């Protein structure tokens, strides 16, 4: 996977790995201009934060702007696949087989991860698979050049300059080689695609060599992911997602993220698990990725950690479902959902919803949270089942 907005935008998650000072806050606003002067300012900031001048020189000596990074940043593809399409493509037989094999291969490391951080092997392994196919596809952008490019560019320097300082920290620790370390175009590194600040703060040495090498060491990647997921708020021993069956006469306007209620309430409405038993002592949201006729899940509090990892609802639901599969859950009942809208139709719907006063964000053809909420509200007003899944029928009625 590539640039994950939540991993860079949320200040509590990605912008606090090194202690912030007034001078560094001012420096973080600097961008553009002569590259050598820019790099000199970065070195000054790195030294002021406690890093060595030697590490800064080693990291920045041969740094250069990568135009391909700028092209990727400006041309980010939008995520428009629906849940069934994405989950069926991404959760392949290969990934299931290799996921189980890796859980067995690194059993002692996963045991340590769960004992120390409370995060199950299946949760870490699902991210490991979806991010890089267990390390096979980690990205080929020079990490220092990518971060220099994005920090120098004036679109979001406040997000990327701290990542560049953290990368210098990694150079000082011997965990990043400026010449050979590569990763995603947005600076993410290693088998679980972590940002430099996250690595500096949450990196764990899983193989005992005294370094955190997420590119080459699977034990390091496993323990670091566990520490990071714990930091995001993971609750040990609790579920994250569970497939359920939902009666056709339920009030579907109660469904959706942000509408959590006691699981005992869902049970009283006739919601039943397809596997195992409901965690009645918790709250959960009823999630219908493709409406009332498609798969249905209860999203427990731990599901929010997936949304911290990646803001895409389809990606996070797929990752959480994949983890349940690795933990032994059966394949979901895909049902027979009503056909969704194509890109022009979705944009037309968003335009109509916006005209009605609903906040759908950008008219981009993406079924994001704002569009789902607006769709649900309009469905309820029109007397339709308010499941948040936009269809041609809804578009016609508008």
TrEMBL record:
One Pfam entry name: SLT_2
InterPro entries: Lysozyme-like_dom_sf (IPR023346), MltB-like (IPR043426), MltB_2 (IPR011970), Peptidoglycan-bd-like (IPR002477), PGBD-like_sf (IPR036365), PGBDSf (IPR036366), SLT_2 (IPR031304)
Gene Ontology MF: a single term: peptidoglycan lytic transglycosylase activity
Peptidoglycan binding-like domain span: 343-398
Presence of keyword Signal: yes
GO biological process: one example: peptidoglycan catabolic process
Location of the Transglycosylase SLT domain: 36-323
Keywords: Signal
Record's signal peptide: 1-27
Superkingdom of the source species: Bacteria
UniProt key word Signal: yes
Descriptive protein name: Lytic murein transglycosylase
Lineage: Bacteria, Pseudomonadati, Pseudomonadota, Alphaproteobacteria, Hyphomicrobiales
